[in-house]
Amino acid sequence: TPVAAVIPAAGRGVRLGPGAPKALRALNGTPMLIHAVRALAASRHVSLVIVVAPPDGAAEVKSLLDAHALPVSTDFLVVPGGESRQESVRLGLDALPPQYGIVLVHDAARPLVPVETVDAVVEAVRDGAPAVVPALALADTVKEVEPAAAAGDPEPVVATPERSRLRAVQTPQGFDRATLVRAHETVTENVTDDASMVEQLGLTVVAVPGHEEAFKVTRPLDLVLAEAVLARRRL
Ligand code: C5P
Q: Which of 7, 39, 182, 188 is the most buried (most CB within 10 A)?
């Protein structure tokens, strides 16, 4: 079964501070999106990458992909994105040619995911799981709170889930294509990842080991960490 990757890259990246859309910001001189595309195309399983660009930035993203060396064995498509991550992923799925039976969805904001993680996700879908997430155990204890009305106000703690049963999930998340398409047709409320939509269909999502370097570049400190990881890889 051929495998395609959809990379939503239409977010503004407000939490990163002022500047270009997040996916177009540079890490060691190369746009984050290009790192992310290369990370997915590095997998021998992935033969198509669909990049979902900012709605007014598809031409710019297309010329970025043309300007950077990318593996010849992988095809690329660029489509304009939407208002929410969910809508951007759906627009990417709409552009998916019929032969692709397995779909990965990968945040442009996780530019450094190692190929071993990508391959582990693909292999778990090939082994029959309808949905697969890379996941890591947590260092911090997590509390559920009653969110405060005003930022900075004290928030009552409601519960403390047992840490050993919690996981932080990353991308790429992998799916049987028909399952992901049905999830996007069925689930309308806002979600923060694609796998939770499949959970809402009543199907089992499985977790495989994630990787520290697949962290999400969200806040300014994450840019410092990402550049340090790249520098260490070059040694
Ligand atoms: O906002 P968040 O960090 O959850 O975004 C995750 C990914 O979704 C990023 O790669 C971002 O570019 C993408 N996104 C998108 N379209 C939106 C919002 C976010 O493609 N409207």
A: 7
Cβ(84) to ligand 1 under 6 A? yes
pTM: 0.96
Second CATH level (architecture) for the domain 3-135+171-234: Alpha-Beta Complex (3.90)
- Locate the domains of the chain by residue range: 3-135+171-234
Whether 47 lines ligand 1, by a CB cut-off of 6 Å, is no
The atom number, within ligand 1, closest to the CA of 108 reads 10
Q: What is the DSSP letter of 14?
A: G
170-210 tens-digit pLDDT: 999 999 999 999 999 999 888 999 999 999 999 999 999 99
Count of residues making up the chain = 235
Alpha carbon distances (Å) from 183 to 151, 158, 208:
34, 31, 21
